[in-house]
Structure formats: C-alpha cells, structure tokens
Design goal:
- By secondary structure, the chain is of the alpha/beta class.
- 33% of the residues lie in helices and 29% in strands.
- It is globular, with a radius of gyration of 18 Å.
C-alpha cells in the first residue's frame, strides 16, 4: 500500500507554500524529506496527514482519497509524531502511550489488558519503561519525544510520519531512533521523516526528497540524491564530504 500526494499545491488561506508536488511512500520503505527552514517540509507533512487540505491535487492511501476516509480509520492508517509538543495535563507516560490505542476502540472506553500490553511493549522498545508512572509534564523534552514515538507505535498504523524526530534527542538516542525507523520499515510500516541532517537520511532512508521554497529539487535513492552538489544547491551553502576509504561510506559536514 502507498501513501501518495499527486500534483499537490500546499499552503494556507493567505499564501501558497508549494506547487506541483508529487510524493509517495510505500509500506516497508523509509523516505527522508530534507530542505532548509521555511521550505515547506512541515506544510507538506500536514497536507499528507490531512491536517491541511491540499489547495490542488489529492492525497490518497492505497488509491483511496484521504478526504473520503473517516478520521478514526485514518488513525489506524497513519500516525504522526510532531517536532514540538507542549504538554498541558500531567497524564502519566503510560496514559499518553495508551492514547495511541483509541484508534482501535472507543474514545471513552477503558484500556483493555491487550491495550496495556501493547503500550508496555512500545515503552520497552524505546527503553523508557521506567518512566511509565511519571507525569508527562515532568520529564525532559528528549524523553517526551521518545514517549510520542512509543505512542505512534502503539497506534499500530500502516504509515508513520515524523517531523524532525531527533531534534530534541541526545547523540545516543538519535542513534536509537534511526535504528527504530529502519526496524519499523522492516516490520512493514511506511515511514516518512523530515530531517536537517543528511547523515540521518543516509543511515535510515531508502529514498530522499529534497524540497526548497516549496519546489522539489530532487528525489530518488539516497546514494544518488544525497551528493555534495545536490546538498549545496538545496541549502545554498558549502558542504564537505568525508569518505571512509575502507568501507566506502560517506558523511556530510557544513563547509
């Protein structure tokens, strides 16, 4: 199954952010979306999620227009992990993760034993089981990001969309999230994530989509798209390339 946007014009009531955008992600693959600040990445994500309606074009899942899919069914198809989430109520961490299970039951029903088991596995997968009884408002920003990832996993969607999932994380947890993104794809999920770090895309993604000023610069396999020349065009800044002569792997640094 594929999550796809076709001939999209995206934006808000007072402005257009991007035009003529085609983007797709299939189950079992990871697509990384890269571009400078203000380039339209988050607006494109919100359009693919149905949070914003496309100004032109269509978003579809498995060939079905997203606009025709009821909200509860959408929640079983796509999970969203935002870049920033400001907590309001002191729910426990376990309760926040259990909120991901509402897509599979009644909003006002009590969690079942099966729901709690799924939530517990999600917490364990991200190494945060010890936080389960802590108030969500009393943990660090990086820990909150891991909780939101666990909530998305507990939702058991086909597709997971993440807006800069490593932005608040330390170096070790960035690696954990990149590994989990690959594991999610291996388990059959389609994953779309935005990042400012092309090295994360090299490590975790199958394909890359470069977006600047609401316009697609390039799209394709990461090894073909993420080059020094392409990144310099994308960011309008010099880029240095480091290559391990033994393994042949490369990394990018700001020039």
């Amino acid at each position: 199954m594929t999550l796809a946007g076709r001939a999209l014009s995206i934006g808000y009531s007072d402005r257009v952010v991007g035009r003529g955008l085609d983007v797709r992600v299939q189950q079992g693959e990871v697509l990384a979306l890269l571009g400078p600040n203000g380039g339209g990445k988050t607006t494109l994500l919100k359009t693919l999620l149905g949070i914003l309606a496309p100004q032109q074009g269509e978003v579809a899942i498995g060939g079905r227009s997203l606009a025709t899919i009821p909200l509860r069914e959408r929640a079983r198809l796509i999970a969203y992990v935002p870049q920033v989430h400001m907590p309001t109520f002191a729910f426990t961490v376990e309760s926040v993760v259990l909120m991901g299970r509402t897509a599979h039951g009644n909003l006002f029903s009590r969690p079942t034993a099966a729901d709690r088991a799924i939530a517990a596995r999600s917490l364990e997968r991200f190494g945060i089981s010890h936080l389960s009884e802590r108030p969500y408002t009393m943990i660090s920003g990086g820990e909150r990001q891991l909780v939101l990832l666990a909530r998305a996993l507990a939702q058991e969607p086909l597709f997971i969309v993440l807006d800069e999932p490593t932005a608040s994380l330390d170096f070790g947890n960035q690696g954990k999230v990149m590994r989990e993104i690959r594991a999610l794809a291996a388990a059959g999920h389609g994953v779309l994530f935005t990042t400012h770090d092309p090295n994360h895309a090299l490590r975790a993604a199958d394909r890359a989509y470069l977006l600047r000023g609401g316009e697609r610069i390039a799209e394709g396999k990461v090894a073909e798209v993420l080059t020094k020349a392409q990144l310099e065009e994308l960011y309008h800044a010099p880029v240095d390339t480091l290559t391990d002569t033994t393994s042949g792997t490369s990394a990018f640094l700001p020039g």
